[in-house]
Design a protein that fits this description.
With 376 residues, the chain is an alpha/beta fold. It is built from 13 helices and 16 strands. α3 (100-115) packs across α4 (142-154). The radius of gyration is 20 Å and the shape is globular.
């Protein structure tokens, strides 16, 4: 069984499934290790989840638990991993960073023994695994760096596969490419078949952009919470291979995390190397979101379904005027404050009356911001 690690958590498991298909074929048995470390829109509790935060997992040893479709996060925590486990062919194993690089190394070694794997494929979408820690747009380097430091401790041969440089809006493509060699391979539309249904419900943006690039989409894309749009271009569907040694030359945080034995210690290392702790930032964002939610509830809540389409057209007009050609579902659903039912109704209307807007998993914006005859 192949062993892969989705280095950053969140939607990285989706990209890892595509890379697994490209490297080994869709039918090759595999275990993907991943964090349950998801955005606050999914999990309102800051930081990553522990093994003890889930029910219904399957143990493959005292260190590693497999997430299944029957698993569930214990409230108030949230996680999309159980649903992802139902949609992805590789099994999903949970890694728990609360014992630092030392504890992660023990988990990875146990998973390798279970799989009978003599090598590890680490996968990162976007490229913060190849960050040096000084990039001003860097937001979430800790998970990737911990995986690199932990894999080094195991002594098991490992390679890092960096997919879609710049697509997570953390390290710009122009900064990353000089650190990389020629692409290992390019993802194609066929490689995306294994994740085709995921984006009907999963909010991952970097993986969505990678899928779009693999399907030939090029242009300016708007994502949520990014200072600048992402431009899908010739390099966006490329996957680059780096040795563990090469990543450690670049990634100063991974170097410094070696020997850490708990997450709090790793946070302090991140503050020292990068100048911030992403877990602390998540705590502050969670506090702000709770305050904003309370205010919204007092003011009467989100718009009703009848007005969502009109609001989308207004939003589309000023967004397209800013030069954005494509957007993710998460971008417009969050900026418009749509409920699940409103989003479902709006998507259905756009798909049925304006099919050219739908470029799965993205949406094409009309530059004039006006509805077509079919949409009226």
């Amino acid at each position: 069984m192949k062993l892969l690690i989705a280095a950053g958590g969140g939607g990285d498991a989706i990209t890892t499934a595509m890379v697994h298909t490209a490297l080994h074929g869709d039918d090759a048995p595999a275990l993907i290790l991943t964090y349950a470390w998801e955005r606050l829109v999914v999990d309102p509790v800051p930081g990553p989840r522990r093994r003890a935060d889930f029910t219904g997992t399957e143990r493959i040893g005292d260190q590693v638990h497999v997430i299944t479709p029957r698993s569930a996060p214990i409230p108030p925590a949230g996680s999309l991993l159980p649903r992802l486990a139902a949609d992805l062919r590789p099994a999903l194993g949970l890694i728990d960073p609360y014992e630092g690089a030392v504890g992660l190394a023990a988990q990875i070694a146990q998973a390798a023994e279970y799989c009978g794997a003599d090598r590890i494929d680490i996968v990162d979408v976007g490229g913060d695994v190849a960050a040096d820690g000084r990039e001003p747009t860097l937001r979430s380097p800790l998970g990737d760096a911990l995986v690199v430091a932990a894999c080094l401790r195991t002594g098991i041969p490992a390679a890092v596969h960096l997919a879609g440089p710049g697509l997570d809006s953390e390290v710009p493509e122009a900064v990353l490419l000089p650190r990389l060699q020629a692409p290992e391979f390019t993802l194609t539309a066929a490689h995306t078949d294994c994740v085709s249904d995921v984006f009907d419900w999963h909010p991952s943006e970097a993986s969505a952009l990678l899928v779009a690039a693999a399907r030939g989409v090029q242009g300016v894309c708007g994502t949520r919470d990014a200072p600048d749009p992402v431009v899908l271009g010739p390099s966006s569907a490329h996957v680059y291979r780096l040795s563990l040694a090469r990543v450690l030359e670049i990634n100063r945080l991974a170097q410094a995390l070696d020997g850490t034995a708990d997450l709090a210690e790793a946070e302090e290392v991140s503050r020292s190397v990068c100048g911030f702790s992403e877990v602390a930032r998540e705590r502050e964002r969670a506090r702000q979101q709770r305050a904003a939610l309370s205010s919204t509830q007092q003011e009467g809540g989100a718009p009703d379904a009848a007005s969502s389409y009109r609001q989308f057209l207004e939003w589309e007009q000023h967004t397209a005027a800013a030069g954005i050609e494509y957007v993710t579902t998460r971008r417009f659903s969050e900026e418009l404050g749509l409920s699940t039912s409103e989003l479902r109704a709006l998507r259905s209307r756009l798909e049925n009356t304006a099919p050219t807007r739908s470029v799965p998993p993205l949406w094409r914006l009309r530059a004039d911001g006006q509805p077509t005859r079919e949409e009226r």
